[in-house]
Amino acid sequence: MFSSVLSISDLSKSFEVEGARFVALASTGLELGRNEIVAVIGPSGCGKSTLLRCIAGLEHPDTGRIRIEGNDVTRPGQGSALVFQDHRLLPWLTVRANVELALEPLRLSRADQTRRAARYIELVGLSRFADSFPRQLSGGMAQRAALARALAVETGLVLMDEPFGALDSILRSRMQDELLKIWQEHQVSILIVTHDIEEALYLADRVVVMRPDPGHIQETVEIALPRPRQRDSAAFGALRSRLLAALAESAPGRRVA
Ligand SMILES: Nc1ncnc2c1ncn2[C@@H]1O[C@H](COP(=O)(O)OP(=O)(O)OP(=O)(O)O)[C@@H](O)[C@H]1O
User: Looking at this predicted complex, what is its ipTM?
Assistant: First the structure.
């Protein structure tokens, strides 16, 4: 049975731009199943980040309903954790202290907080760097620390906005494999925004293609390829062509109502 972790219906969001209403998202609906990975692609400005920010409770939608595990999202950090392109670790805190800080709202005992932070730092392979500061980490390591911080909260839903966008291609594909390994072992649902079609195809069970003017979901493509996926296989290539064609249909634009 399809058990929804995230359920979005009729979501819309507009912003005031130069005295006029600009519609960033219009009547958007989306379901995310338990342990599902869904990637969101689309041209710049089609509302991908706005969608994620609404789910994360950082933006208040104009209309519609967002539920995580059946609960309406009304404030930040409710049922989800967000990973950005830049790691956003606090520079004056060590990796360990950054992860522990994210756990503060859970009001765990001091011992449990320490244990949980250590477990997730180990999971992303950073135990040796737990007492390092962000400036002492490479880009990939800092992004792994940000992932540990998001996973440690154990929300069951991780939202990722271009998480590997700033990494070089070799590191990026290594991080994709690490993410899949963690996902397989830890049973989380992931909604990931990416500009990279290959990344979407490599990671996702479904790819949602968005279109601007106003931002909405144009189509959803099932990626029924077994894992680990072969980027040079004919089936991968056929889906790549399909997504490229879907993206070509989307032309950036801006509607001011
Ligand atoms: N706070 C805001 N005020 C005004 N306009 C905004 C605001 N946030 C987003 N927008 C506009 O809404 C539209 C969608 O932005 P959003 O960042 O969601 O797009 P995106 O698809 O994530 O783009 P990109 O791929 O470039 O990151 C853009 O035109 C953007 O300028």
Answer: 0.97
